[in-house]
Amino acid sequence: MTIRFVLNGKPVEVEAPAERRAIDLLREDLGLIGTKEGCGGGECGACSILVDGVTRLSCLMLAAQLQGRDITTVEGLGTAEAPHPIQTALAECGAVQCGFCTPGMAVTAAGFLAGNPSPDRQAIREGLSGNLCRCTGYQKIIDAVESAELAMQAKPAMQEDE
Q1: With contact defined as beta carbons under 8 Å apart, do 32 and 75 qualify?
Q2: What is the mean pLDDT of each run of 10 residues along the chain (162 residues)?
């Protein structure tokens, strides 16, 4: 079947079997390997993507469910020259170790912050609760989300001054 959707801001049209999983389409067919498959059963969050701005697990979605949607993967959050504030904060706060969970964590955090501009630490914990990390102990990840939140709040004020 032909699937048409917006991927990281660009229109995409791809042929795929109806039963193909979204994660396989993204990684194997479209070469976006930032989205990781950890468990394949919706338990770890490593495969998180944003679908119309809402975090979804791509290992549990069929490619056909992408039809007509706006999809953001970790590759669409930012660039090396202009990273998303959560990407910068994760690095600056030392919130990555092995890095396997980081793309899913970053996508989930970006989606969470878009809908929760001033969360407290408990809200951040709850917002990230579907994403597992075996290395960091979560404190630095929560610190990074707080740091990104502050950067996102400061950015509009800086742009107005320019």
Answers
A1: yes
A2: 97 95 98 96 97 98 97 96 96 92 97 94 96 90 96 70 50
pLDDT score at 157: 54
The reply to whether 7 and 72 lie within a common domain is yes
pTM of the predicted model over 0.85: yes
Looking at the fold, whether 67 and 124 belong to one and the same domain comes out as no
What's the domain range around 33? Answer: 2-76
Q: How many domains does the chain fold into?
A: 2
Q: Supply the DSSP symbol for 4.
A: E
Q: Which long-range contacts (CB under 8 A, 24 or more apart) does 83-87 make?
A: 84/110, 84/148, 85/147, 85/148, 85/151, 85/152, 85/155, 86/110, 86/113, 86/144, 86/145, 86/148
Report how far Cα 143 is from the mean position of its chain's Cα atoms. 17
Strand (E) or helix (H) holding 142 = helix 139-161
